[in-house]
Amino acid sequence: MDGGWRPSASLIIFRESASSAPAGRAREDKKILQGDWVDDPPGGLVCFRCLTKGDEPLYQTVLRDSSLFSLLLQLDQALAAEARASGCACGGALHSAHYPRKPRGGPDGLGAEHCVRLSFCCSLEGCRKRVTPRSLRFLGRKVFFGVWVLLLPVLRDGPTRERLRRLEEVFQVSRRTLLRWRRFWREALPGSRFWEARRGHFATPVAVEALPGSLLEAFTGAVPSGRVLEVLRFLSPLSCGCREQAF
Asked: Does residue 121 lie in a domain region?
């Protein structure tokens, strides 16, 4: 079994088989459990499920599912429409002033519309203020899509060296990047004005040492697939570029 790959207890990987399935045949994802070996390259491993104690699934998300990214784009477009309808603070109308991004992560074949940050500019001379609405796709200036920044650091027992290596292999994200994201969740975010203003809104305190997994658990009213969207919506003010207000 030399050269194989085996997931840890806290990481369950699913294999995308839709591309290889015959036409008209339903997609069948193979669950790779703890102890299973994978002999071929891990590039086909496209999503994971993080488990809580007792091996009960906390949530499941498809990190390279184009339908998820299409939904995130639609939600961003709705937020942009609201911002544009509100107009500029000076009373002027807002004109489109979208700009390109080069996000990493997500499914192959995403359209160019997924690489555009929706933004506006005031139409009045003497103002021309830029208004960039909240976003569920982008988390500030981070290069990767926000959903990747949220989900890849979520490991039940913490990012050990072996788990970091596996994540690095499967998702092509460097160890340095994963550790930087962990510092963001455990150090930068808890010390921010954004967190200070909102942490008291939760019925049960969110454990800083377990972020971002504890934040996902805090949204107990949502179904597992909806928790990711709820957390991204909660974090969306961080995407506006107002660092002086957020941090």
From this structure: yes
Percent of the chain with pLDDT over 90: 45
3-state secondary structure of 12: strand
**Distance (Å) of CA 242 to CA 82, 122, 130, 168, 169:** 18, 17, 12, 31, 34
Contact 208, 215 (CB under 8 A): no
* Per-residue tokens: 22: 């015959």
**Predicted TM-score of the model (pTM):** 0.73
Buried b (16+ CB within 10 A) or exposed e, 39-62: eeebebbbbbbbbeeeeeebbebb
DSSP reduced 3-state for 134? coil
In the chain, the number of structural domains is: 1
Tell me the pLDDT tens digit for each residue of 66-76: 888 999 999 99
Containing structural domain, residue 94 = 67-131
240: CB partners within 8 A, 6+ apart: 132, 133, 134, 135, 246
Provide the Cα torsion 36, 41, 47, 51; round to 10°.
Answer: 30
What tens digit of pLDDT does each residue of 49-106 get? Answer: 344 443 223 334 457 778 889 999 999 999 999 999 999 999 999 999 999 999 998 8
Indicate whether 13 pLDDT > 80: no
Q: Which residues contact 190 (CB under 8 A, 6 or more apart)?
A: 208, 211
How far from 206 is each of 44, 110, 194, 226, CA to CA, in Å?
Answer: 34, 34, 14, 18
Alpha-carbon distance of 193 to 200, in angstroms, equals 12
Question: Given the structure tokens 């001379």, which residue do they identify?
Answer: 125
- Is residue 127, in this structure, part of any structural domain at all? yes
